[in-house]
Amino acid sequence: MNKTKIAVLISGGGTNLQALIDAQKDGVLRHGRIVLVLSSNSIAYGLKRAVEAGIETAVVTKKQAGSQEAFEQGILEELEKHGIEMIVLAGFMQILSADFVKRYDRRIINVHPSLIPAFCGKGAYGLRVHEMALEYGVKVTGATVHYVNEVPDGGEIIMQKAVSVRKNDTPKILQKRVMAEAEWQILPRAAERVAKRLMAEKNARTRTYRIDNIGGLLAENAYPGRGIVIGESKETGKAVCAYFIMGRSENSRNRVFTLKDGELFTEPFDPSKVKDPSLIIYAALRKFQNRLIVTNGDQTDTIYEFLEKGQGFEQALETRQFEPDEPNFTPRISGMITFGQNQDEPGFAYKMSILKSEDPEGSRCGRYTYSYEPEAGLGHFIHTYECDGNPLPTFAGEPERVAIPEDIDAFTDELWTGLNTDNKISLYVRYTDPATGEYEERLVNKNTK
Length: 449
What we know:
Distance between the termini: 38 Å
CATH architecture of the largest domain: 4-Layer Sandwich
Radius of gyration: 25 Å
Mean pLDDT: 92
Low-confidence stretches: none
Helix content: 25-40%
Shape: elongated
Strand content: 25-35%
Number of strands: 20
Largest sheet: 7 strands, mixed
CATH class of the largest domain: Alpha Beta
Number of domains: 2
CATH superfamily of the largest domain: Inosine monophosphate cyclohydrolase-like
């Protein structure tokens, strides 16, 4: 994956830097890579954090530079040397000029320890922000990640998180809680959001429509959750469908895939250990006439029932929403392959859908459907979570483009090997000849007797 190259600018201890380093290691920061940590202070502890993480460092101080212009020129030289595409200000105690900021328009982000527009702007930094909050008597404060422009703390807000103010808080106590409960949580997520946007924009500019190796994508992600892949085999034009499940809890891991009359079901491996079957036991794949339906939940049956009534895929999913497993609000992902009606139309087309929460409270459901004409060797991959986390971050963006090989065994092995060993549970792969309807299938269960 051609990740967005990130520089993190610091001046001190680098606790926010550490949150970014941890996020990169854990797969939260997935579309960006920290390639440089630059400090305005030669003895900043954050430099040691970077070295321990194997990240290159640089020091540019205003005192040694002698002027703001020379200081910024020194920074620019380091950024250009490392091919930096995105900048994260993480406790960087220097103001950058309007000219500098314009060079990286919508490519510089900053984390501020308040809910902007409260307690921000000139003079509002560090401990002083929390002193201001306590002096004002607010009951709620928090942190904000925003784009940087020529106005201090005046750029577009990317993400915010609230933190309660407690009766006996001091500025230092409040500062620590805001960092732990807000800054370290939202900065990596916001950085990932911007890095992903920049990567997509770069690909669009160069018109490179990348096709990823799905094994590599999975190897970089400890917990994509449940995933669906649909596409066309490289040489013979077979319709390819794959579905996998993962789990972190004992209840989720107590599952296997079973086949009954050409349909796929999840069932408990040990029925005596089932705690809640509602979201883990369902028909995952069913066939109705010339359509093959695959989903991560009981919406498989909903789609089937709507097709029986002469209605469509989208109409069925309009009646459903994400799963009610607060705070994760796991998305419902679905796919459907439609084969030609007769021998004169042996091809196929496919759709994919995701129903996901649009806010942390689960009060709004977003419904997104993608329709595709097949292309040899190309598939689309959608999964429930961006990566591991608590709560689990919902999948963002469009289905990812992945390579589909001709050989079913090679593809099955690539998927199963790529999935995290600790979290993978079951995998099903099906290659269908659209002209005859004949198919090959492979089923892998981690739990075996």
